[in-house]
Amino acid sequence: MRIVLVGPPGAGKGTQATVLAETLSIPHISTGDLFRANISQGTELGRRAKAFMDAGDLVPDEITIGMAKDRMEQEDAAGGFLLDGFPRNVSQAEALDVMLKAGAMNLDAVLDLEVEEDEVVKRLAGRRTCRKDSSHIYHVDYRPSKVEGVCDIDGGELYVREDQTEEAVRNRLEVYHTQTEPIIDYYKAQGLVSTIPALGEVKDVTQRALDALKK
Ligand code: ADP
Predict the structure, then answer these.
(1) Does residue 67 contact residue 45 with C-beta atoms inside 8 Å?
(2) Is 17's pLDDT higher than 80?
(3) Taking a C-beta distance cutoff of 8 angstroms, is the pair 139, 125 a contact?
(4) Quick one: pLDDT at residue 20?
(5) Is 127 an active-site residue?
(6) Between vectors from CA 128 to CA 125 and to CA 11, what angle results, nearest 5°?
(7) pLDDT (tens digit per residue) in 107-161
(8) Using a 6 Å cutoff on CB, does residue 52 contact ligand 1?
(9) Of all protein residues, whose CA lies closest to atom 9 belonging to ligand 1?
(10) In this structure, how many other beta carbons lie within 10 angstroms of the beta carbon of residue 155?
(11) Rounded to an integer, what distance in angstroms lies between the CA atom of residue 154 and that of residue 207?
(12) Catalytic member of 2, 71, 123, 127
C-alpha cells in the first residue's frame, strides 16, 4: 500500500505512522526524521535544512523533494510505503504525483488526522523526543517514559525539540493552515481522503485508521 498521512503538528502523526507502518509491513518514511538524521550526521543537506526547521518553517522544495524521492526509490519501498510529513504543500503533492506516475504507481489512501487547535498546543508543549532515535516519542502526561527524561527503548536522553518552543509551535500551526491544509482538498479531488478523528487513545486512533484503509 502507498499511504500519505497528514495532520497538524501535534496530531500524533509520528506515533501513528510508526505503528501503522509496522502493522502493514511497509517502511515509514518521515521527511522530518530524514532531515534530523542529516543534521545529526552533519551533512550539507542537514546544514541547509536546520534554520528552516528551528523556525518552524518548511524546508524549501528543492531540498525536500529530492530527498524524499531518493528515499522512496530505495528497495524496501518498492512494494509500498507510508509517508509522514510529505507532501507538505501542493507543489510537493504535484511532484509526488509525477514521481508515482513515472513508476506506474498510485496512492491508495490519504489519512487526515483531525484534532482541535487547543489540544494540539497542549500536546506539543509536553512532547519529549529521544536523542538516540527520534521515532521514540513521549509525552509528559499522555505517554510518559518509565523513568523521567530517559527513553524506555534505548536509554537515550529525552529532550524538547528545538522546533517545539512556543514561538516555533505557533508558526508551525500557521504554516500548516496556509500551506499544508490545501493538499487535503487536492487529494479530496482524487477521492483519496479519509478523515480520522485523532482524539483518544493511541490504539483507538490506530484502529480507526486501519478500518478506514479496509474500505
Ligand atoms: P511534526 O512534529 O510536525 O511531525 P516533522 O518531524 O514532520 O514535524 O518535521 C519537522 C520539520 O521538518 C518541519 O517543521 C519542517 O521544517 C521540516 N519538514 C519536514 N517535512 C517537510 C516537508 N515535506 N517540506 C518541508 N519541510 C519539511
Answers:
(1) yes
(2) yes
(3) no
(4) 97
(5) yes
(6) 60
(7) 999 999 999 888 888 788 788 999 999 889 999 888 999 999 999 999 999 998 8
(8) yes
(9) 32
(10) 10
(11) 27
(12) 127
Closest listed residue to residue 100, CA positions, set 84, 81, 116:
81
Q: Which of 2, 36, 71, 88 is catalytic?
A: 88
Q: Report the length, in residues, of the chain.
A: 215
Ligand 1, atom 3, lies closest to the CA of 9
pLDDT digits (tens, 9 = 90+) for 54-72: 888 999 999 999 999 999 9
Q: Which residue lies with its CA nearest to atom 16 of ligand 1? A: 53
* Cell triple for 166: 512556543
Would you say the pTM of this structure is higher than 0.90?
Answer: no
Does residue 28 line the site of ligand 1, with CB under 6 A?
A: no
Known active-site residue 143? no
| Residue 92 beta carbon below 6 angstroms from any ligand 1 atom | yes
The ligand 1 atom nearest the CA atom of 8: 3
Residues 125, 169: contact at Cβ < 8 Å? Answer: yes
Q: Catalytic one among 2, 13, 36, 123?
A: 13
Catalytic residue at 13?
Answer: yes
Which residue's CA is the nearest one to ligand 1's atom 6?
32
Show Cβ contacts of residue 154 under 8 Å, excluding neighbours closer than 6 positions: 130, 132, 133, 136
Is 2-115+180-214 CATH 1.10.10.60?
no
H helices of 41-165, where? Answer: 44-55, 61-72, 90-102, 117-125
Cα–Cα distance between 61 and 180 in angstroms, integer? 13
Tell me the average pLDDT across 197-209.
94
